[in-house]
Amino acid sequence: MTISYSEFIKEAHLEGFEDSEKYRAWEPKIKKYREKLVNSIPEEFKITLPTDVAELQEKGFNGVDFLYKSGVLSSKEIEITDMSASDLLGQMASSELSAEEVFKAFAHRACVAHQLTNCAAEIFYDEGLERARSLDKYLKEKGTTIGPLHGLPISLKEQMNYAKKTTHGGYVSQLTNVPEKHGITTQVLENLGAVFYVRTNQPQSLMHLDSNNNVTGATRNPYHLGLSPGGSSSGEGAIVTLGGSSIGVGTDIGGSIRGPAAFSGCHGLRPTSKRVSTSGGVSSGMGQESVLAVAGPLARTIDEIDLFMKNYLNAGKPWELDGSLVPMKWRDVPVPEPQKLTVGIMCDDGLVKPSPPIVRALKFASEKLKAAGVNVVDFKPIKTDVASDTVLKMYNCDGNEKQRQLLSASGEPLTELTKYILSQGDGSKPYSVQQNRVLNFIRDGLRTEYTEAMVKQKVDIILCPTYNNVAPRPEKIFNWSYTSLFNALDFPSLSLQTGLFQDPSIDTWDDGHKNYVFRNDLEKLECALYNPVLFKGAPIALQVATRRYFDEELVAASKLLVKLFGTK
Amino acid sequence: MTISYSEFIKEAHLEGFEDSEKYRAWEPKIKKYREKLVNSIPEEFKITLPTDVAELQEKGFNGVDFLYKSGVLSSKEIEITDMSASDLLGQMASSELSAEEVFKAFAHRACVAHQLTNCAAEIFYDEGLERARSLDKYLKEKGTTIGPLHGLPISLKEQMNYAKKTTHGGYVSQLTNVPEKHGITTQVLENLGAVFYVRTNQPQSLMHLDSNNNVTGATRNPYHLGLSPGGSSSGEGAIVTLGGSSIGVGTDIGGSIRGPAAFSGCHGLRPTSKRVSTSGGVSSGMGQESVLAVAGPLARTIDEIDLFMKNYLNAGKPWELDGSLVPMKWRDVPVPEPQKLTVGIMCDDGLVKPSPPIVRALKFASEKLKAAGVNVVDFKPIKTDVASDTVLKMYNCDGNEKQRQLLSASGEPLTELTKYILSQGDGSKPYSVQQNRVLNFIRDGLRTEYTEAMVKQKVDIILCPTYNNVAPRPEKIFNWSYTSLFNALDFPSLSLQTGLFQDPSIDTWDDGHKNYVFRNDLEKLECALYNPVLFKGAPIALQVATRRYFDEELVAASKLLVKLFGTK
């Protein structure tokens, strides 16, 4: 069990990335950015933690518990920020609640969440307040809301362009990047009435299932400050779980919405590509369409995910602003009757076996579904090795050229997980255009095989792990296979909470594990990382997925599942 | 006016394509293929033309006239083959007509069409007959049709995989390629009840707006045997116009459905990408998704285009067989009321000005629309130079690698138009993956600009030329800008007949032409090619287009337009 991740770093050819000389010129900018972040927390929202953060991390401090029990928020604030988005919108529309008081409660809670987890990259309280007040004024004067999301506090992954605000995407070199205009999705949400006040953290390169970067550092897990919140929509996972926003928007090219939702403790949807706009933002993937990045919502309930998608699409009509989108309205799909639903469970993708808490959750889910009359069948993984291999090659088949541009412009030091991801696929080896086309062809073949398998077996949704384990320890997550499969397939997929939490007393390896023959080195490494005592109290989520563009059916089925799990 | 196309061939680096030594081994295979084609015409369907083909070409012989007036088809055959697809399907479903007699009439007409225009690459009468008889048997035994296209004679571009039949796509090297299975679209149509009996001609490389190849040579224009039928779905343009099939299926990556429809004399729809499957076929574009190839119907009426799309999508559910498709049903969209329709006319794309017959047709269309109460506005071309430049680069940014593979495998001689297209963009210069991504990014920007312009100006459809001229002379078509614009934009676009035909006595350059200052060399070349007397009787078509995935609205508006033009 002595394998380390570094053994996985093949010939990465990472020369020309780091440059400590050049980096020195950037350090004052970083310092200034951080100071601004610290100073952006209103004085009255500052809290004192029981001990210093390092100690809390060591102890596995539960931030969610603290938030509810410490009294840092008033009961009225808790009440408002625990209301569903639908109730909030209804009460604001009828003036039972003002946008201002809703905003203030969420902004307060967001600041607490940030002080617990370092989830924010930027907080702009005054602008949020001004916006909320202008919405109240609008409603008062016109007698109608500005749009269906009138007054709703929404958090945004920092990577998304925000007009006239630094947008760095976790790259030091982009600290000087100040877009003129909002990215399309931000603009659509603003048009619908959303209130913005916080932009959230993400890892360097945007390509970790974790959160560390050289600008504002790593985010912490809400349920266990010593664990990772996941990534790359790291701050979204943390802030949404802690109720610092009603709904959050993340992006996902390999698991970046589903990972943080699963690990942090909320739900997160990776929609099919080209429904939610990713236009306007910092990333290494501009024009890369072999494996498409998507944007999508994170929320505490599936209903809120549904509400986001429906309003964003049907009222927002993003395809009128972004010509690359597919103009498909969000269809009203009823929650399926259990007896009419077939769920194919894929317990193990054949690459990396799940850890004990994940195995327990799969068993729990299977039993709950069967008890309710759902038709539960086995879904056998199909060429998951090819899918994982292909998608990893797709990420960097430009020979890491774009990442090199973005990273070497500041010469910033590479974090370990950046080095890891840049070494995957064929590392810095550039592919020819024709080789890239072959990858696309392989990918389309996989899409057809999975589609045919689901149609033939009449499987409505696939249920499987989001990752082979619960929330990883910081900088210790190497396997993307369970999430990136659905990026390769472009299947809508959703991480949902089971309501279970890791328990060291029961989530131990079974007797068979000590004689288990690992199928590959990655599995050996990932399994070695699981030590029951380290993950105490981590939320346990699973992932569901279905065929392309059946997002509505996926969300509807997810509503049934969380109901059967006893969550929401 | 001495510019020749060869001046446009930049550094094409076409070494390694041709190899006369190697090619010698392929010549017997070509001979055998051609003999088989000649022998596949049933004896009783053989016709005698008035004089030899070269003379008919010289004279501008009208094949459509000949077909109706020469008596080669019985009046009953004419009656059947001139019925709408909808009537045919209705009468076959009610057994008023048998699939066998429908098949025989179309097969006869197809054989006449082939002898006039060399439109077929393969004819398989016996299999078609057997299929038609089995459908009649099915209906008799089961009392129901096999599907909504039960008995409909459909022609297929040869490039599309056909189970157990040679599928060469115009490449000599592919004469040994015999797919095991049908391509997806062929399979879907077969599932729905279509009868196949003819596969049609296409140019070498599949990248000409013309038809010549080394396997079966060039196809001729039905209305003027001395002109080109267009391409690359060359045989489809000719056979559909001549009524040798009820509906034809072509493919289009730069104008390959719209060109042959427009030039030959029928209508043709290039749907938005990922609605009709292109999976399974010979082409140089496997895995190329910067500018996506699409498949779509050609027909003599817009109603038949509607019927094809509706049944193919709604009953065929191709997305269950091809995981790369967008599962969007065909929506029932009523024909718009003239007063509620806004048509933006783009008379000139700013690159190559239209020839006199096209100018006349634009004026005719504008007047007809205005007279009916349609809101007609100017639509100004947006960055058409960028669009044309980008799409040409996208075709061969693999450095012509895939074309080189397919062509050099036989060493076949390159036709002039193959050399021309391989020299476009940056010729054989390979792009890096990152450079390819930049092209994609530029393309997405164009999509958004056109989308925004249409939304802002409330333009429902754009009306413009399909090409700056009517049907070109063989091997003399160099400008793709009017069609490839909509491939870059991925806008659904449709060539439709105006009912007008070129007339040398009126379609002469206006007085201003002799002092006209050409905007570029391509325009100079294309204009030099227009000599009124050479194009006598060529059909005059125009092109309509609209925003992505509004195919239904485009087809509905086209129904109105042809009605106003007095065609159907």
Report on this structure.
Two copies of one chain form a homodimer. By secondary structure, chain A is α/β, with parallel strands linked by helices. Helices cover 40% and strands 10% of the residues of chain A. Chain A has helices at 20-24, 27-39, 53-59, 63-69, 75-81, 85-93, 99-117, 125-142, 184-192, 234-241, 258-264, 302-315, 356-372, 384-396, 401-408, 416-423, 433-456, 481-489, 521-528, 551-565; strands at residues 120-123, 154-157, 198-200, 247-252, 267-270, 294-299, 342-345, 375-378, 461-464, 493-501, 539-545. In chain A, strands 1-3-2-4-6-5-10-11-9-7-8 form an eleven-stranded mixed β-sheet, sandwiched between helices. In chain A, helix 9 (184-192) links the parallel strand 2 (154-157) and strand 3 (198-200). The longest helix of chain A has 24 residues, at 433-456. Chains A, B: Pfam families: Amidase (PF01425). Chains A, B: This is Piso0_000465 protein. Chains A, B: Substrate binds at residues 206, 232, 253-256.
